[in-house]
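Readers of this paper often ask what the protein records in our data store actually look like. Nothing more is needed to write down the fold, since each code stands for a local backbone conformation. Below, we set out a record of this kind in full and without editing:
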Amino acid sequence: MSRLLCIVLTTAALAAGLAAMPATSHAQPATRAYAPENLRTLSRDDQVRVISLEYSEQSRGRRIPDDQLRFYLDQVNRSNWTFSRIKQDIATSLAGSSGGGWNPGPPHGGGNVVRCESDRNRPQSCSTPWQGPSRLLRQLSDTRCVEGQNWTAMPGRINVTGGCRAEFGPGQGWGGGGGREIRCESLNNRLRECAIPGAASARLVRQLSSAPCIEGNTWGTRGNVLWVNHGCRGIFMAGGHAGGGASGYSVSCASENNRQNTCAWNNSYGRPFLQQQQSSAPCREGSTWGHRGNTIWVSNGCRGLFSAR
């Protein structure tokens, strides 16, 4: 009995001694992000690690979005952003995250380049410091960025979608009275807006769609915006006036009651093209309209305005 009592007492003493020892936390304190101010001295993997960790610390454990991480890596290696600059930008982005997500806008210290990215094929809209046209400077994505398809521009803004990631800058040719061609397309019959010079007019130079492009109906202008709708796709001339193509020569030709009709064409102006479809029936070259000798022929209800380049 005495031996059993000794074992019990020894066990109790050991338990008491352990209880008296300072508690040791099993969870190690979270490692704070540490890096030199010049992140270019680190390997790319270490750059990813410290930037990701800093974001996690500031956001209470959230993972940094892929596009935001790519943006910071580019700024470190191409624009010499410091670690303090990145920490400041992370704080700003998190403070404004309730307003629609992170938007890098113009790179710090440069007002002539805007990086805009469609991450995971989602639409993204980015503001620009210029109000004129925009042009693609450098594609960053494997997905090809095609104006009118997965990126568009309007005054003060660039919109990307479908995985297009690129850097954009101000376009050319909006000074001195216009004369710049603009391609504007209504895809899936949806309304589309394209930037044009402020207070400038525009004219349809060439229709690209089988759906009719009719001014005031499926296309028009308001202020410095050109709009197209209901499938109209065309090339427009900013600052232009109503009339034919570049030469000013045009011919209207109509197929009445779906019958074939021919209209005289002056071949000295070269080959005609369909400037504007004026019928609900499609005008398709080689199918419902064509050029033969010194005439234009139309059929199957095609009515259109044909112009010289």
